[in-house]
Amino acid sequence: GAGVSQSPRYKVAKRGQDVALRCDPISGHVSLFWYQQALGQGPEFLTYFQNEAQLDKSGLPSDRFFAERPEGSVSTLKIQRTQQEDSAVYLCASKDRTGWQETQYFGPGTRLLVL
Amino acid sequence: AQSVTQPDIHITVSEGASLELRCNYSYGATPYLFWYVQSPGQGLQLLLKYFSGDTLVQGIKGFEAEFKRSQSSFNLRKPSVHWSDAAEYFCAVVSGGGADGLTFGKGTHLIIQP
């Protein structure tokens, strides 16, 4: 079946521009996560949704980062006034139930380069 | 706060040789532990997970991992590696609370020599 998809796969932005990254989770999956992976590092948690509710946004690095999932399916991560330090791969993951032991399924990521 | 340490940044193994990738965690309660693999241009793929029961866990692609509470470790092993195993490997622990977000180690880059 279809996995988690993300678009665009690559994004180049000039410093100061706003960007929007899209995540299509596996159909029916309740939980959705965003992670940021800097070059040579492991992914770092940004935010978590259960259906349309954003239950945890403790990992968002600044108020320039904003995420939404208005209908409990597709999610968008928006970064305003991008900075060079925002350059990273942004990963989306979903899982079909809540619960710590449930598997998160990851998308291929969006590679963002801020010039 | 929970944390995961993968002490080896790079490991080189000859094809057909055995493999062990180290992972140490710091977590106050019973940990939920995962190993993921990331190939170039690919998303993270779950190899195996542990949350209770038998401390030796079998995963996909011939991998296994052993949970040792006394050593706070969850090392990944494979008896005989293949060239296709070359990738980045991440150990992760669930963050806990209500959020379920994963805390990852920095990863180990596995190189396979012919």
Can you give keywords for this protein?
heterodimer, A: 115 residues, mainly beta, 7-stranded mixed β-sheet, globular, B: 114 residues
How is the topology of this model organized?
The complex is a heterodimer of chains A (115) and B (114).
Chain A lengths: L4 E3 L2 E4 L5 E6 L6 E7 L6 E7 L2 E4 L8 E4 L6 E5 L8 E8 L9 E2 L3 E5 L1
Parallel strand pairs in A: 2-11
Antiparallel strand pairs in A: 1-3, 3-8, 4-5, 4-9, 5-6, 7-8, 9-10, 9-11
Chain B lengths: L2 E3 L4 E5 L4 E3 L2 E3 L6 E6 L5 E7 L5 E3 L5 E5 L4 E6 L8 E8 L7 E3 L3 E6 L1
Parallel strand pairs in B: 2-12
Antiparallel strand pairs in B: 1-4, 3-9, 5-6, 5-10, 7-8, 8-9, 10-11, 10-12
Computed over alpha carbons, the radius of gyration of chain A is 13 Å
Major beta sheet summary of chain A: 7 strands, mixed
> Any low-confidence stretches of chain B, pLDDT <50, length ≥5?
none
- The protein's oligomeric status is heterodimer
> How far is the N terminus from the C terminus of chain A?
37 Å
Number of helices of chain B: 0
Average pLDDT confidence of chain B is 91
β-strand percent of chain B reads over 45%
Relative strand content of chain A:
over 45%
Structure summary, number of beta strands of chain B = 12
Order of helices and strands of chain B: EEEEEEEEEEEE
Topology pattern of chain A, helix = H, strand = E: EEEEEEEEEEE
Structure, described:
The complex is a heterodimer of chains A (about 120) and B (about 110). Chain A starts with a strand and ends with a strand. Chain A has strands spanning about 5, 10-15, 20-25, 30-35, 45-50, 55, 65-70, 75-80, 90-95, 105, 110-115. Helices cover about 0% and strands about 50% of the residues of chain A. Chain A has no helices and eleven strands. Chain A is globular, with a radius of gyration of 13 Å. By secondary structure, chain B is mainly beta. Helix content of chain B is about 0%, strand content about 50%. In chain B, β10 (about 85-95) and β11 (about 100-105) form a beta hairpin. Chain B is globular. Classes of the chains: A mainly beta (about 120), B mainly beta (about 110). At the A-B interface, β4, β5, β9 and β10 of A face β6, β10 and β11 of B.
